[in-house]
Amino acid sequence: MAEEGIIRAVRLPTGKLRYPKSEIMEAVKSYRIPVEAPRDLIEEYFKVKQKALDAIFSHVKISKKAHLEFDREDRKRLRDELPTRVEILQTLR
């Protein structure tokens, strides 16, 4: 009736296996690794993300529908303005 392994499965009359959600969630929880980032790193990440979103939304044109007019030069300029991960980490040290 039941298959044995990491996640217990029930074989349906059609021959397919059914995995109960509770079993799947328990397996995911058991393999989760907690990762803690410094608070100032998270804050810097959100500042950069907000700056990128502001730049993108400034290029949205609305005429019945929303259209993003963000050409290659604008994207390149934005990438050059935003700090890289390495630059953010260096400022936090």
Description:
By secondary structure, the protein is of the alpha+beta class. It has 2 domains: 2-31, no CATH class; 39-92. It has 4 helices and 5 strands, in the order βββααββαα. It has helices spanning 21-31, 39-57, 72-81, 85-92; strands spanning 2-3, 9-11, 17-18, 60-63, 65-68. The model has no long low-confidence stretch (mean pLDDT 75).
- Portion in beta strands: 15-25%
> Gyration radius, to the nearest Å?
24 Å
End-to-end distance: 57 Å
- Could you report the average pLDDT, rounded to the nearest whole number? 75
How many individual β-strands?
5
Helical amount: 40-55%
**Lateral strand order in the biggest sheet:** 1-2-3
Number of helices: 4
As for the number of domains, it is: 2
Largest sheet: 3 strands, antiparallel
Can you tell me the residue ranges where pLDDT is under 50 for at least 5 consecutive residues?
A: none
Structural class of the helix and strand makeup? alpha+beta
Q: What is the chain-wise order of helices and strands?
A: EEEHHEEHH
What does the overall shape look like?
A: flat
Describe the structure in brief:
With 93 residues, the chain is an alpha+beta fold.
